[in-house]
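Predict the holo structure. Ligand: guanosine-5'-diphosphate.
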Amino acid sequence: VTGVQTCALPISFFTELSGPRAMTDLTNYRNIGIFAHVDAGKTTTTERILKLTGKIHKIGEVHDGAATTDFMEQEQERGITIQSAATTAFWRDHRLNIIDTPGHVDFTIEVYRSLKVLDGGVGVFCGSGGVEPQSETNWRYANESEVARIIFVNKLDRLGADFYRVVDQVKNVLAANPLVMTLPIGEEDDFKGVVDVLTQQAYIWDDSGDPTQFEVTDIPADLVDKAAEYRENLIEMVVEQDEDLMMAYLEEGTEPTIDELKHCVRKGTIALDFFPTFCGSAFKNKGIQLVLDAVVDYLPNPTEVDPQPEVDMEGNETGKFADVDENGPLRALAFKIMDDRFGALTFTRIYSGSLKKGDSVLNTYTGKTERIGRIVEMHADERIERDSAQAGDIIALIGMKNTQTGHTLSDPKDVATLEPMVFPDPVIYIAISPKDKGGSEKMGVALSKMIQEDPSFRVETDQESGETIMRGMGELHLDIKVDILRRTHGVEVEVGKPLVAYRESITQTIEDSYTHKKQTGGSGQFAKIDYIVEPAGTGEGYIFESKVTGGNVPREFWPAVEKGFKISLEEGPLAGYPCLDVKLTLLDGAFHAVDSSAIAYELASRAAYRQTMPKAGPQIMEPVMKVDVFTPDDHVGDVIGDLNRRRGMIQGQEGGATGTRIKAEAPLSEMFGYIGDLRTMTSGRGQFSMEFSHYNPAPRNVADEIVKEAHDRKAAAKA
Ligand code: GDP
């Protein structure tokens, strides 16, 4: 970077680039996400990036709730970003599509979703808070999705900020390999700029807050040795990417050129061997240029990441891939549906082929074709119409009628589906009802829109009580939905208390037999089955097997036996919660040439369920959450004591510079309202993250209570 290159381009330059002229050189694309724990400064960093890239002239400070990527009122008030808005910006002739990822744990699903469509990321950490529990969760997800990242250690102007400590945490907490690219100059209030380790130059900003007001100078005397030491470390780490350079360096002491080094950094970054690590202060506009340069220099373009696998209608991989080629058949994934003030936007990533206005594309999920209306590119404060888009692009489609999150849009003449996004089952639910009598239709319309926007959100009607039930990933997730109902859709609702999605399972193996016999007028019904009901392994779901050999139950009726039991499993024998991990083995039985039918076997199987399940040691299963708490050291005892009272199992504890992290597992039912209690216990300084881990048998007294509650609810619904 030089001051001139990065700041002085006239706005018209950018407008021209982003106009109708197609940019099809995919090596100039960077589809990136910026992820961070709530409060680490993701919003501010994004703002600064957009400002620097010439797209925003006025910066909305997060304090005022006016940031541009925080579209929704709810987010602004809570100061968190829950929607993944895709924003396009330009830097050094490169197109950056920035997918805004959410930081709050209840929206981990949104992080997952955005990881799917991006090729690289910037992990933002707070220079004083360091690596927070939630950062680790998102980091792990990004590892699983093999997303290359650079790291930005932010807020170095803050009291207590310590770049080197955060670098250590990246090693110790995230078990990642940070490649230190910049060193801070000055601390806290005195933070002035950064040393570029690679070029051994200093970038020093003035205090105007203008990101373009900086000068490139020699490294301050007190940092010269340190900078040299870090440079040597850097070279040693990166030359491993290139055998020849490594030999020349180690054996002959020949130092690679800057370009060669950059090439190695790029290679290792894309391979996830290390994470180039930068520092600065987004708030004070210091250090952002180097991060943007790194995005361009080190993060992969769409052709450098593994292509998306294609699947058949059952979701099995076909062995083919959506190759990143604008001349290939169209494969695009709708990854986010959002209502903005202009209407419904379907955010879509194109993996292969191209899209033009007026094209007919096949939605492989609905099996119907849809016409592409308008194609727009979203910028922070405006949208730009496009006539076409191609592989590598992230754009929004306007006017899509039947396309929902996770659907593939395909070339109708060469059809393939992209690997679908997987969303875990929601573990928490609440009953809601409209406050006004007339509000029920309005609520229904609003909810059906909201389901489309968020696949981790479900709505159903309770069969018995007729109540509307919202299901989601956590308390806050559902809180926000209630807010959206009220503010966006003008529906005031009454909200029940949050309920846990319990399950049931069995503990014993029972061999049994059932005969279904019915004589109604003319033709009768007959089906006899001998079978074993037993617990299946954890996570195996429902397994059906037939060991019938003699033909006493003809093969054509086996599926009916399988189905009858499967349907019945929706309602467990104890409290009516769905039943997990059960195996049914059909051993033998009998049939009647005239009276046996699929229906008769299905009915026999359903009755067998009612007859045998209560005998098979049924138990209530409760969702157990993985909980990760951060607390200042002086409250560790309180926090652990409290977790124990919540039936939590402490799994580990780890001291850090700013406090202690406690890892535990605790039943969801005990964790309601935890954030409030934790804040109270820790004078507002505690933080935590939580995600679903597994189902565990509920202890006897708890299970009894759950069964009783379920029966009471049923009785109340009947009355
Ligand atoms: P997000 O939750 O990760 O999006 O974080 P925000 O960007 O909303 O920032 C959280 C708070 O930290 C806001 O009050 C910001 O003004 C503040 N903040 C962000 N970056 C910096 C920084 O570099 N230095 C300081 N001192 N504060 C910052």
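The radius of gyration is 29 Å. Residues 36, 38-44, 62-63, 79-81, 103, 154-155, 157-158, 281-283 surround guanosine-5'-diphosphate (CB under 6 Å).
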